[in-house]
Amino acid sequence: MSNRSEKMATWPIGKLLFSMGLPAVFSMLIQALYNVVDTIYISKYSQDALFAIGVVTPMVMVGLAIALGGGVGISTLVARKLGERNKNEADAVASTGLLLTFIHVFITMLICLLFGKTFIRLFTNREEIIALAYSYMSICMFVCFGQHFAIFLERLMQAQSNMLMPMFAQLFGALTNIILDPILIFGTKTIPAMGIAGAAYATVLGQIVQFLLCMFFYRKSEVAIRLKDIKLEFNRIKDIYAVGLPTMIMNMVGSLTTILMNSILVKFSEDAVSSLSLYFKVQSFVFMPVFGFTQGALPILSYNYGAYNKERYLATEKLYLLTNVAILFVGTLLFRFKTDLVLSFFTMNESLYSITTRAFHIICLCFVPAAISISFGTVFQSFGQGIYSMIQSFLRQIILLVPIAYFLSTFNDLDLVWWAYPIAEIIVTLIFIPLTINTYRKHFDH
Hints:
Layout: H1 3-10, H2 13-45, H3 47-83, H4 87-120, H5 127-142, H6 145-159, H7 164-186, H8 196-217, H9 234-265, H10 270-306, H11 310-337, H12 339-343, H13 350-363, H14 367-382, H15 386-409, H16 414-418, H17 420-444
Helix pairs in contact: 2-3, 2-7, 2-8, 2-10, 3-4, 3-5, 3-6, 3-9, 3-10, 4-5, 4-6, 5-8, 6-8, 7-8, 9-10, 9-15, 10-11, 10-13, 10-14, 11-14, 14-15, 14-17, 15-17
């Protein structure tokens, strides 16, 4: 047994979860800087550019959804095979994952090429906004290889309980983005101002730095990537996408939901669309720690399911759930009572400031129920039943959130629309509590 596998099997759960979760939390917070720093500088550049980013962010996030789905599916299966003491198959999964990542990059580029401008025109006929939005979108999606391959390698390292190296890679990638943002957006004596395109270039260059560092750090990993193992073997690919595809769809559903919400909000004003974009950028700092602990918890849960260790599995899930609830409870207090401090980083007009403040106060009521839902979704992923996580996400966002928001919008009161978020989240949580308990019992009590 390798030192890392021994760590997964023998370390105390609290020490193990936090040793794996905290570096991932830090990594995810760093990741949140990519979009937030862009938005801070863009808000200073122009309100039109801020609206343009709000319009195209859901489409850009489709590429991220594909990358995350692939990374989660590959790494979860690798962790499970390591738990089963089947290193050869873990190597084969990782090697096949390399080919799948190339395919994911191509799909992301194709989506932008085929649907980019048509998508933007759904929300505006202003040619200046269309030009700004497509400039940002095309750069982020055509130069997406850094993002995809960085996530692929990071998730492989995390599957082997190596959380520090992905953190360092993300740190230097984010620092690259932060340094380049003001230079490329506003220009210098020698570099011309690029505006919104400069924000996109800063982002993709940061992702490329992150990928190159991941390549360097991966050299000494336990799981090997070998060209001879790159085979399109049906059962292996099926197992990867059993978790990966639902994760992709879940994240794409998030993008689709934002698109549909924007179509509702734009009827009120462009500022309403910008306010939702600002909310998602800022709330990432609250939710990213939860997603960081998810990255730490999922390999532990998958490993202990592969090893059929019920006690360690249950102890991990309980601690993980309590941690998520605590984080998002603090987040609720921050959004409700420290809104002025949070919004002070952005430049905005009075109307946008007022709308965004109300949105923050109302939507944050969904945070604690969301902590429970996220924790339950990880249980399904660890069992290789990502389909349930997908159903959970689809129910929350498409079946409940959008119809509720549309219904409330008919009262012509924007504040009512924001209430759709906590209402949908509470309903989903209540539905999935018994389903999660039954799924756990099905896999361990037989």
